[in-house]
Amino acid sequence: MMQHRSIPLLILFILYLHAEELPPRQSQPPTIILQPERSVKYFKGSSRTTDKELVELPCTAIGSPNITFQWLKDGEPFNPDDPNFISKKTNITRVVQFKEDTGTLVLSELESEDSGIYQCIASNAFGKSYSRHLHLVEAKLGVFKSLSKEEGTYKPVLGESLKLSCEPPESIPPPKIDWVRYDAEDGFTFIITKGDDRIETDFEGNLYFANIQQQDDNNKEKYGCSVHNHILSGTSYGYFSWIHIQGGMKTEQEGDSQMQFPTSLLYQSQKEVVGLKGRTVKFKCIFGGNPTPTIQWKRIDGTLDKTRIIQETHELVIQSVQREDEGQYQCVGTNALSDPLKYNFTLRVESKPEWIREPRPVEKGVEEEASFACNADGIPKPVIKWFSNGKPLETLPPSDRRRFVNNQLIFINLTRDDAQVIQCNASNDHGYLWADVSLSILAFKPEIKIPLMMVKVAEDQSVVLPCETIGKPNPVIYWKKGVQKLEGDRYIPHPSGNLTLKNAEKSDEGSYTCYAQNKYGAVEATGQLIVRKKTEITSPPFPKEQLVRFGSVAHFKCSATTDDQESKNLGITWLHNGIPVDLHNPDVEITDAFGLILKNTSSKNTGNYTCVATNGLDSASASAQLNVLAPPDPPRDVSVSACKPREVELHWNAGSNNFSPIKYFIIEYNNTYKPDKWKEAGRVDDPLATSHSITVSPHVSYTFRVIAVNELGQSQPSRHSNPICQTGPAPPDKHPSNIRDDRSKPGFLIVQWDIMEQEDHNGEGFAYEVVIKKDGKTETYIIDDWKNGSKEIPVDTVYEPYEVTVTARNNLGVSTAPPYTFRAYSAEAEPLVTPSNFELVPGKEVTDTEAWFQWDAVDTSPAMMRGEFKGYKIRYWHADNKELKTEIDIPKANEMNNKASKRRRRRAVPKSIAVAKNLPPFSNLELDVVAVNTHYASNGSNSINLTTPEGVPGQVSYAAVLVRGAHHFLLEWGQPKEINGVLTGFEIGHKKINGLVVGEMSEPVKYDDPNQNRAFLGGLEDRSEYRIFIWAKTRKGPGEPYFLDAKTAHPAPPQRPEIVHIFPAETYLNVSWKVAPSNEPVGSIHYVEYRKTGDSEWKKGPDERLYHWSNISGLQTATRYEVRIVASNGKEKIASDIKSDVITAGASPVAEGGFVTAGWFIGMMIAIAVLILILIIVCFIKRSRGKAYHVQEKERLNGADPEGGEGNHNNDIPRSEAEPLTKSPDSFDNDNEKPLGGSETDSMAEYGDVDPSKFNEDGSFIGQYGGQKAPSEAAVPSAMSTFV
Question: Over the Cα atoms of the chain, what is R_g?
Fold first, then answer.
């Protein structure tokens, strides 16, 4: 084996002895990579600027060996070190060249002689690279020639055309020309020609007036032409012109006496224009005449492309000119006095050279071949010239290794001396293209970039053995396994050096060597090939084919085996129709055994499913078919074959029926007026149909779509039809509907109707025609805004009839449908009559919300009502708020007339009787009555006074379960918004809820304190749902209940309380606590335990059931205490953390003090002050509520009893107030600021009252907490801070 191994080494040694001397790796001529971007650059020149003007001429190149740079100016060598470039101002050179590795020049203080064409040359031993030309041009702006005032004065006739000449001076680059009006006081004002068809400038800058108007006589103003050079930022103003209209100025009274002139041509731009492809071309026509001529543009030999061609009044602008724009164009000018004047233009399109194949840099090795292509197109055809290192190719000595083949420059059998720079110039009349590319020559021995190391392959698979090799000239490469050279059909060598081995076998395992050599040397690389057992599918997907209903689950199973050495890498993937299934789809699941589960299947899941097993070396696959029984796929290829004004022929092809026959098709449409709204156009019951006729409206753009239906449902809509169907015009099919009048605006007849949608217009020029007839006279009005559905017509009548018709029309005529005539009325006004003798009906009882009234009926004739009589309104207001009035409608149908009996006089006035309901109870009211028509009310009748008796209250304003335990709730509520009397207290009851069954009501518990706002509800079952009812009461009784649902907690120890605040005084503590929000039960009783620091026994404070604060009194001053809170549910207790740093205020208990400074004396004084304040407040309340409310004597005479009667009650419970409290108790959130409850087994009645000693005079706890608040309100500390 060692003998065989030594043979290749010997061969390599022999090759080494015969190898040529290794040259430099690369011969790289220069390539310019940074050069001037533009072909022309302007400069101001030192005579026109005081700033230090700099111009940079960039030139950077790459190449090897080192590069030198040279510049040409106007084709001659340019020497930056020439003494002529020394600045006269600074005495230093004006031309600076950058570092040696770049040829960039910077010129400063530029002079006129610096103008010229510059070019950079980069050179090294292998060639020369030439940059593009840069033309450096000095900017210039001349001055206008001067004229006398007589030469610049124009005296046109009013209405005559006029031209003001500009004659701009020389400007480099071309200037921007404007016209101005100059006034000595106001300065310059630019003349804006846009939007004024009468005034225009030509391409040379002259100003034209199509006809002179009075405002053109500039009197003291002067017309002037200005040119602006943007490089120099300078403007030059020309001579001024004056316009004096012959005949002088006309006054407004005299008017303008204008002469009229036919259309005449004032200016036409160049008739034959050569436009360069991609550039912009403009044609211009200026016409004179009075009236001002109108101008139209058209293309004689085709149509104008509106996407690129802009038609301005005087100009036709063609943007981004293309070859197809070549042709004849025409401008047409006309006015009322002449026939159209037509002038033609011819556009010929040419183009600058454009690359077809641009030369590219070439890098080749010795003995190889290189080619360069230089193909360009343009109009005229570009001329191609070749250069080598800047010299024309035809001037070089001929060479049999350089030739032209098919417009390509080709070099063969390259040597290192062939390194050079190739230039190509493609030129025509409009420009040139310049390419400067290098030919680099490489020469080096072989190198293996990616050697063979160890490669694994599975049986029957092809494998690539890597040996990527480079070298110049290209090396000869061959392979061996051991000592055997690899040849035959199973071995495929690649130019890169790699070798493909086809259909690997176990016997192919072993060591492989790659050999590479050229005339400069040789190299080799050796590696190993390992062949594994191939992967196989042992259990293909099952079932092989299955049919499932959409929405169901499909399941495939699959298993495979592979080589034992690769089993850890074995994995299975699934493909759907050759594409990996989306594992991010929640309806796709891969099981632990590589099975595939498809959930919620649809027609998209139909197809072939392939199980692919792979170990990274090879793979095996097997497939199965899934068919999903589903609604059809959308129809396709929807198109319109006939688009008539009232009928459309629609065609389509059905999609897949997804294994259930199609039953019918649904056709839908939308239009340009409502593109987002699809409507059904019809149904096609033939399941095999592929076309259908549809009725449409004229002058509408339609698109259609089709939906297929089978037993399982509808398909998705098809794509909409294309192109859009535009139906032809026709007269409207109908007239506006729902014609009506509006009688609310005095002095007008207002007619209204429902507007007709655009799809009903049937053509252009749609309008409504309103015809009004009265007393033999007819007036017609045209409304051309289709969105306007009303017409206001001034009239001098009040509530008088008119005959009105509203019809629809368009440019093709009026709708042929018969019009509808409507009897409309002019506007109403305030009635001329007033109800009188308004009073209570004698003998009718007045309840808390209801009273009967009567009054003298009014004359209801249209003349007196000045409108349509609608009935009456009873108005009431509180005696102390007359501005806020409430009205009760008494329609004429509900009004009862109490006509005079026959025994009365014939002329007795009949009475109208009505009941006023929903009056506010317990209120001192004033009332009157008015007669009403549709929009107006009469003057009010006499007013009367009425005091409604006390009623029942409304619901409490809110209610909430603050905390809950296993057997109790702690409730809180707010006072009712509508008390309707004197509030006397509250009642609370509950019902147990079992599923949908609501149990019997418990015996309500009564609370006689009207200020109470909390209650403890105990004795409940754990984990049970209850409906809790809360009633507010007055002396009249309970009102409507407020109810809420809540659920008790599960049995568990009470939550641990947390101390929030401790406020120490001299002899007492105010302590507050909270319980963290959770679903766990809260204790029914909380109390404070305290002890002096050092004591072992705890003392217990009073039980707290309704609030989460407590007061501990009888303490020693200036003493340290330990405090904790204990929660109990009657069976179990749990204590909070201990607060051990609580110190009472004051001096030590053993200290002696005066009588006045004793703590008990101060506390007693404060308590007395509090009691006096409470007494004053109670007296004030009693005084306010003790006022008597009397019914007027007239009411008593009529038999009314203000204290008697029962009121009507509204039995509806406002759900808006109840809903926030009816969420599931299982998710009940405990407010961490809410108080705790009492014993879970106690009855609610035992804790109906709260110890008054814990409140100050406004009902708040002394020391911290404010009065009764809604659950959302935060507690506000009381102003009081002591407790006796």
Answer: 53
Q: Using CA atoms, how far apart are residues 842 and 854, in angstroms rounded to an integer?
A: 9
Angstrom distance (rounded) from CA 342 to CA 271: 13
C-beta of residue 781 within 8 angstroms of C-beta of residue 770: yes
Q: CA dist 405 to 442, 665, 749, 835, Å?
A: 24, 66, 93, 116
d(CA 1250, CA 110): 102
CA 342 to CA 297: how far, in whole Å? 10
Contact 628, 601 (CB under 8 A): yes
* pTM of the predicted model as reported, rounded to 2 decimal places: 0.46
Do 838 and 852 meet the contact criterion of CB atoms below 8 Å apart?
Answer: no
**Calpha distance 436→442 (Å, rounded):** 20
Distance CA 70, CA 61 (A): 12
**Which two three-digit tokens encode residue 22?**
């290794």
Of all residues in the chain, what percent carry a pLDDT higher than 70? 85
Q: Which residues of 813-839 are buried (b: 16+ CB within 10 A; e: fewer)?
A: eebeeebeebebbbbbbbbebbbeebb
Res 369 pLDDT > 80: yes
Burial of 83 (0-12, 13-18, 19+ CB in 10 A): exposed
User: How many C-beta neighbours within 10 Å does residue 192 have?
Assistant: 10
Which residue type sits at 1072? Answer: S
> How many angstroms separate the CA atoms of 840 and 1195, rounded?
7
Query: Smallest Cα–Cα separation from 689: which of 662, 721, 727, 671?
Result: 662
Residue type at position 159: G
Instruction: Please name which of 1239, 611, 1261, 1161 lies closest in space to residue 970, comparing C-alpha atoms.
Output: 1239
pLDDT for the residue numbered 543: 84
**DSSP conformational letter for 1060:** E
* Phi, psi at 1282, each rounded to 5°: -130, 160
Distances (CA, A) of 442 to 22, 402, 414, 497, 1223: 11, 18, 10, 19, 85
The CA angle 393-395-397, to the nearest 5 degrees, is 90
Which of the 8 DSSP states describes residue 1174? H
Burial of 1231 (0-12, 13-18, 19+ CB in 10 A): middle
The set of residues, in sequence order, having a beta carbon less than 8 Å from that of 944 and lying 6+ positions away, is 838, 839, 840, 926, 927, 928, 1192, 1194, 1195
Q: What phi, psi does 498 have (nearest 5°)?
A: -65, 160
Say how far apart CA 1237 and CA 961 lie, in whole Å: 11
The tokens describing 887, both together, are 């009205």
Q: What is the pLDDT of residue 448?
A: 94
DSSP tag of 1006: E
What angle is formed at CA 162 by the lines to CA 157 and CA 166, rounded to 5 degrees? 145
CA distance 967 to 1017: 9
The strands making up 315-318's β-sheet, listed across from edge to edge, are: 261-268, 281-290, 315-318, 309-311
> Which pLDDT does position 469 carry in this prediction?
95
CA 260 centroid distance within chain: 57
Positive or negative, the CA dihedral 1209, 1212, 1217, 1223 is positive
Query: What is the separation, in whole angstroms, between the first and last Cα of the chain?
Result: 116
Q: What is the pLDDT of residue 801?
A: 96
H-helix or E-strand spanning residue 15: helix 2-18
Identify the band that residue 100 occupies on the pLDDT scale cut at 50, 70 and 90.
low
Handedness of CA 952, 958, 962, 968 (dihedral sign): positive
3-class state of residue 80 by DSSP: coil
Category of 795 on φ-ψ map: left (φ > 0), alpha (ψ -120 to 50) or beta: beta
Give 416-448 pLDDT, tens digit per residue.
Answer: 889 999 999 999 999 999 999 999 999 999 999
